[in-house]
């Protein structure tokens, strides 16, 4: 789960249901589960599918939720650059749930959706600045196995962003790798969060995004 404000409620429309390789927990079966569901709906308008997975281990659930709340307070990196990096990493891994939720988060935060929607195909798009393209290249390079980050790219980013923001960028990509790999392994697919946005999320191919 990631932190975000509440406005639009996602719909199930044309999305592909998650396969839930780890069984989908019934959050209505206990007071704690109902608390988790209620809090999730207040924050996101819907219960994220990964909450149903994390609920099987309360310690993991609470640690993850607390960690995400603290991550949401980081502010050294421009929020546009942060979402570009996060979504580029998710697209590289192929986590459609994370792309779906990331696009909705950008919508809720009032970011430029005309640009955010292009992140999965940023190399072919002409809407991004050189700095934004470097940020997404860095996210992809970090996400590769093994990572392919170069000294030249890291130096360019440090000179443009500053060391503090580069540290935050690097950790945000690492965090998104954790999120995307967990959600993809758990069998989660696009849940419909991005269906509340004005523009559909672009995809590099039929298997990524919407």
Please outline what is shown here:
By secondary structure, this protein is mainly alpha-helical. The chain is built from 9 helices and no strands.
Provide structural commentary:
This protein has 210 residues and is mostly helical. It folds into two domains: 27-71; 79-196, Up-down Bundle (AhpD-like). It has helices at residues 31-44, 49-54, 58-71, 79-93, 96-108, 113-116, 130-143, 151-161, 163-185. Helix 4 (79-93) runs antiparallel to helix 5 (96-108) and helix 7 crosses helix 9. The protein is globular, with a radius of gyration of 17 Å. It starts with 30 loop residues before the first helix and ends in a 25-residue tail after the last helix. 40% of the residues are buried. Mean pLDDT is 88; it is low at 1-14 and 206-210.
């Amino acid at each position: 789960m990631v932190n975000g404000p509440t406005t639009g409620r996602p719909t199930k429309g044309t999305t592909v249901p998650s396969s839930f390789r780890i069984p989908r927990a019934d959050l209505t079966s206990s007071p704690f589960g109902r608390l988790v569901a209620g809090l999730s709906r207040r924050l996101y308008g819907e219960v994220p599918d990964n909450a149903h997975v994390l609920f099987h281990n309360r310690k993991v659930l609470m640690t993850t939720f607390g960690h995400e709340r603290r991550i949401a307070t980081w502010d050294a990196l421009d929020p546009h650059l942060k979402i570009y990096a996060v979504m580029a990493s998710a697209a590289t891994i192929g986590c459609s749930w994370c792309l779906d939720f990331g696009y909705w988060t950008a919508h809720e935060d009032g970011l430029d959706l005309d640009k955010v929607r292009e992140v999965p195909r940023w190399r072919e798009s002409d809407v991004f600045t050189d700095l934004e393209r470097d940020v997404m290249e860095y996210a992809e390079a970090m996400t590769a196995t093994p990572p392919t980050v170069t000294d030249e790219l890291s130096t360019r980013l440090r000179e443009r962003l500053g060391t503090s923001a580069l540290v935050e960028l690097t950790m945000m990509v690492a965090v998104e790798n954790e999120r995307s790999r967990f959600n993809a392994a758990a069998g989660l697919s696009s849940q419909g969060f991005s269906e509340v946005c004005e523009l559909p999320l672009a995809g590099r191919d039929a298997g990524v995004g919407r």
